[in-house]
Design a protein that fits this description.
This protein has about 260 residues and is of the alpha/beta class. It is about 30% helix and about 15% strand. Helix 5 runs parallel beside helix 7. The longest helix has 17 residues.
Length: about 260
């Protein structure tokens, strides 16, 4: 059933409330984008499910974005195609309509991730590409020492990788995606070596997991991190990350092709 907020958001986050500054902080990183493009291969027609403001949208000749949130659709740049207002679980396309299908940072927003992936498999003749996070790994990050509620939320929301591969069927590969130190896409792990960035409320708001914690928890996080940065305690524990070129965390790229 298509149950949505007034904004049109179909998952557990109302992007009409929290998605206003998303495009300012979640700019696609070229190195991550290159991995997605490689996984899509030579596809000429691609459906991008949960397309949001257009991050990582394929450069294929024909792209059909799907995005239920009006707040996200309005942030799409003018040079990108307008998004179809629909949800992953009920894609309004015939079987095998596209060469490939993709979704990035979206499956954890869906009410039924398995159903959405089966729909992507149904409408794609070739690869289905999914950028997501492994819930078993999201807590292996310094942020857990400061805001455990946020990463507990992420671990709860992200579907297990085994469930995603089962829903996709076919032949599926799972590859870790290293996060570069100067990553332009502001998800939590993107700031592994730049902790000061997470003191910006706008940067936190662009990561949907922060919308699940109350203002008291956000204020405590900011106060604790600011104190440890000022005292040098953060750098004593984690300072080597400031020079580490890549962080191998929870980010994963799944690619499924039919048997």
């Amino acid at each position: 059933m298509d149950e949505r907020t007034p904004d049109g958001s179909a998952g557990d986050v109302d992007y009409g409330s929290v998605g206003g500054g998303y495009a300012d902080h979640r700019r696609p990183d070229d190195r991550i984008a290159a991995r997605i493009a490689q996984a899509l291969g030579t596809a000429r027609t691609v459906v991008n499910v949960g397309a949001g403001a257009g991050s990582y949208e394929s450069a294929a000749p024909e792209v059909t974005p799907v995005e239920p949130s009006a707040a996200m659709r309005v942030q799409r740049p003018a040079h990108l195609p307008a998004a179809v207002d629909a949800i992953a679980e009920q894609l309004p396309f015939a079987d095998a309509s596209f060469d490939a299908a993709m979704t990035t940072f979206s499956v954890h927003q869906w009410s039924d991730a398995a159903a959405g992936l089966r729909e992507m498999r149904r409408v794609a003749r070739g690869p289905v590409v999914v950028l997501t996070c492994d819930p078993d790994l999201v807590r292996d990050f310094w942020l857990y020492a400061y805001a455990p509620e946020v990463l507990d939320t992420e671990a709860r929301r992200y579907p297990p990788i085994a469930e995603l591969t089962e829903a996709l069927g076919g032949r599926t590969t799972v590859q870790p995606v290293p996060v570069p130190l100067d990553c332009t896409d502001g998800f939590n792990e993107a700031y592994y070596g730049r902790p000061e960035r997470l003191l910006d409320p706008g940067a936190r708001q662009a990561c949907s997991a922060w919308s699940f914690v109350d203002e008291e928890a956000r204020a405590r996080f900011a106060a604790d991190l600011r104190r440890d940065l000022a005292s040098g305690a953060w750098d004593e524990r984690y300072g080597k990350l400031r020079q580490q070129p890549y962080f191998k965390g929870s980010l994963m790229l799944l690619r499924s092709v039919p048997e």
